[in-house]
Amino acid sequence: MEQLKIAVQKAGRLHDESMALLKDCGIYIDNGREQLKAASSNFPIEIYYLRNGDIPQYLKDGVVDCAILGENILIEKGQELSVVDWLGFSKCRVSLAVPKTFKYNSINDLNGKRIATSYPETTQNFLTQNNIQAELHLINGSVEIAPNIGLADAICDIVSSGNTLFKNNLKEVEVIFKSQAVLAVSPSISKKGGEILNKLRFRIRSVLHGRNSRYVLLNAPNHKLAEIINLLPGMKSPTLLPLAEAGWSSVHSVVNSDAFWEVIEELREAGAEGILVCPIEKMII
Ligand SMILES: Nc1ncnc2c1ncn2[C@@H]1O[C@H](COP(=O)(O)OP(=O)(O)OP(=O)(O)O)[C@@H](O)[C@H]1O
Ligand SMILES: O=P(O)(O)OC[C@H]1O[C@H](OP(=O)(O)OP(=O)(O)O)[C@H](O)[C@@H]1O
Ligand SMILES: [Mg+2]
């Protein structure tokens, strides 16, 4: 039986959350990453544990059908490959940074300067778009140290919390783009592979919608219902059930995780009581 070949980072920042996502999709993986490949006992998928930086080439060559990788690596090494889903983890940005003492007014201040980076394509494209000529120095790790050891005047690297920049006395001056983990596809995926991929994508979407939502239950006096329902859009519209006590109802709905504290405050002000907030395992839309 044909299997969908999916690449996942062998070790590093993407590995754990990629595996957790497959697990939440109900896919059991038989063996660990000590081996290059692993199979699943309950879904037609084969996992290839690879380096994030090598994955775009494996996708182009059709060695794997799809992959979970950082969008920034795809922009650097695989612009022609398609992203089919944005997975919401490993969020970061690719930015230019300079020493805190550098008097930076605009990108023009980088003309003629030396820039250290692990992302030469991304950096060069950004500089070209802005008509800047600079000398690039390719470094594969700890790029932030380059200005401090006199190797470069600026860097282009990943920034997340900003701690690494701070520790190295650097400041972020240009955000080139924002990145997160994505599901990307090989141009040579077969028809059957595409069908399995669609099943996987359906599961991934259900898991991600569930993660981004909360199930809210509350009690409210009937004369307050109109105002409360107005605050709760729900999937279709909120569920309304009568309470044993006359004049009261129970309202059930789904609220977006990002907005839910604000919504809860508004609900309380509108007269809601006994509010319960529960996680949603899967949400099929
Ligand atoms: N500090 C960070 N915060 C959030 N996401 C990050 C951070 N650093 C990297 N990432 C994201 O995780 C991906 C993997 O980063 P990691 O440092 O594990 O590997 P890598 O050096 O790209 O990989 P490999 O050795 O597997 O080729 C990056 O491409 C980026 O998308
Ligand atoms: O803004 P921050 O939260 O400090 O994150 C940014 C740092 O994280 C990444 O490095 P990583 O820790 O993956 O080490 P690496 O250079 O060995 O890949 C990236 O290359 C930055 O150095
Ligand atoms: Mg890293």
From TrEMBL:
UniProt-annotated location(s): Cytoplasm
GO molecular function per UniProt: ATP phosphoribosyltransferase activity
Source organism, top-level taxon: Bacteria
Gene3D superfamilies the record matches: 3.30.70.120, Periplasmic binding protein-like II
UniProt-listed InterPro entries: ATP-PRT_HisG_long (IPR020621), ATP_PRibTrfase_cat (IPR013820), ATP_PRibTrfase_CS (IPR018198), ATP_PRibTrfase_HisG (IPR001348), HisG_C (IPR013115), N-reg_PII-like_a/b (IPR011322), N-reg_PII/ATP_PRibTrfase_C (IPR015867)
One Pfam entry name: HisG_C
Keyword Magnesium: yes
Catalytic activity, as annotated: 1-(5-phospho-beta-D-ribosyl)-ATP + diphosphate = 5-phospho-alpha-D-ribose 1-diphosphate + ATP
EC top class named in words: transferase
Essential cofactor(s): Mg(2+)
Description of how activity is regulated: Feedback inhibited by histidine.
Stated role: Catalyzes the condensation of ATP and 5-phosphoribose 1-diphosphate to form N'-(5'-phosphoribosyl)-ATP (PR-ATP). Has a crucial role in the pathway because the rate of histidine biosynthesis seems to be controlled primarily by regulation of HisG enzymatic activity.
Family: Belongs to the ATP phosphoribosyltransferase family. Long subfamily.
Name of this chain's protein: ATP phosphoribosyltransferase
Source species of the chain: Aequorivita aurantiaca
